[in-house]
Amino acid sequence: MMSAPLLDCAGITVRFGGVAALDGVSFDVAAGEIHGVVGCNGAGKSTLMKVLAGAVAHYEGAIRLDGAPIRLDSPRASLRHGIAMVYQELSGIGQLSVAENLCLGRQPVTPWGTIAWRAMIRQAEAALAELEIAVDVRRKLAEYPLVVRQMVEIARGLHSGARLLILDEPTSALSIPEARRLFELMRRLKVRGVAQVFISHFLEDVLAICDRVTILRDGRRIATHPVADVTRRSLIEAMVGRGVDATGQDHLEAVLPEVSAGPVRLRVDQLRSAGAFEDVSLEVRAGECVGLYGFVGAGHQDLAQAIAGARPVEGGVVTVDGAALRRGDVGGAVARGVLLVPADRGRSVVRQATIGQNVSLAHLRRAVGEWLTRRREMEAVQPVLNRVGCRPPNPRMRAGLLSGGNQQKVVLAKWLLGPVRVLVLEEPTRGMDVHAKREVMELVQQQKGAGAAVVLASSEPELLLAYADRIVVFSRGRVTRTFAGERVTKADLMHAAEEGLETVAGKAL
User: Fold this and answer.
1) pLDDT band at 146 (very low <50, low <70, confident <90, very high)
2) Residue 173: what pLDDT?
3) Which domains, and CATH codes, for the chain?
4) Where is the ABC transporter domain (predicted)?
5) How far is CA 409 from CA 27, 50, 432, 453, in A?
6) Is there a contact between 169 and 145 (Cβ–Cβ < 8 Å)?
7) CA–CA separation, 166 and 158 (whole Å)
8) What is the mean pLDDT of residues 111-119?
9) For the segment 161-201, what is each residue's pLDDT rounded down to a tens digit?
10) Distances (CA, A) of 402 to 47, 409, 436
11) What is the largest CA-CA distance in the chain?
12) Residue 133 gets which letter from DSSP?
């Protein structure tokens, strides 16, 4: 039995350009409840949460807090009512310190009106200590990897003193030990009476941590159930509106093929990057997908960036079709057909630009020729948007309005305008539902079938078991095991990733 709702939404409707992103959605959450929200990309989850966070003010319907009507017409209004949101696409300011990010807008001041720097540092350290993260809060946020920036966002929401905390895909960038630590924190907040909304495409996480779950589909609320009354299969069926087929497979094991006899397209020789990985060598053949697996911070994601020239290296060589790439030369790598899709979509999608501008950005001359007109640009990008299944396929729509899965399709569409010899994917399906994952990976499979060498770096064992031909496992920057031509299970991958892992990842940062 849940207590009376802390927050109660009735008939929430939001339209963008005449299209209903939310259509009469009702939703409530009680104090001390963890309420999950699930649905396919574009189902309306993010829009509903942005309404609660005050980021989308043009909504219809009623919102009550403690039984009293309120209007959430700005982020400041939401914060004033004790509602804080941690966005999936990180909003921290990289050039400010961790402490400045945590206390932004709430900096302690001296009697003379200046910032009390020592007090702010103490507050930041205390906020991070609650999450058991040991980092130097005086360093710039941009100096830390994605996982630390994610945890700082979570700590920032908690530091605001929220009564209702909205977590949008908080575990998508976390390793298994870090996700467990987050769940422990969420349970402590639950005991203290903090209401929490948990949005996740990891249905196992929803079932593990939530009290109730609401399913959205096509902008409408399909149902709300106690978690004890649902299963992963029933959630997927409700999300997609049909029975579960291959979409619902767990991919707990796979039989990997023998190493391909095709020509070597990508070769990595003794590549090393200080503090990330050491002396890594591997080959990827044309038409082959090699998976890189490890817990967050294991070095596999850093290697993916280094292959594409996006991370500095101290030694080693990367060659494509027998010719060496220049170290740190992203432009040169792109010209050679080595393309990186990074985990942080904020680095690949210009959210304020249109979809069409994002797609044409990397290959403008190749796509439209010497004379650029808006009409020629749209004519060039429209077919590739249709090809990747972007929804809606409107090149004039602002890219920031798309769901995470459709933003990733825009990133892939951008690269499909040019040559693809090596496709490097870093957590390509982070924060996506099972249906969107399958759509994106089908596009990757098409490139593989056309002869591209695919490097798939992920901390999701299921993704690698479903799509990789070989799997290289990392732990603390070193390769611990390579699986090829054999049966491999999720447990095998996780055991190999734990070799040499003496401390939990959060304390080793």
Assistant:
1) low
2) 62
3) 5-248 (3.40.50.300), 253-337+419-507 (3.40.50.300), 351-418 (no CATH)
4) 7-243, 259-501
5) 30, 22, 11, 19
6) no
7) 10
8) 88
9) 789 999 888 876 666 777 787 888 889 889 889 899 999 87
10) 10, 10, 13
11) 73
12) -
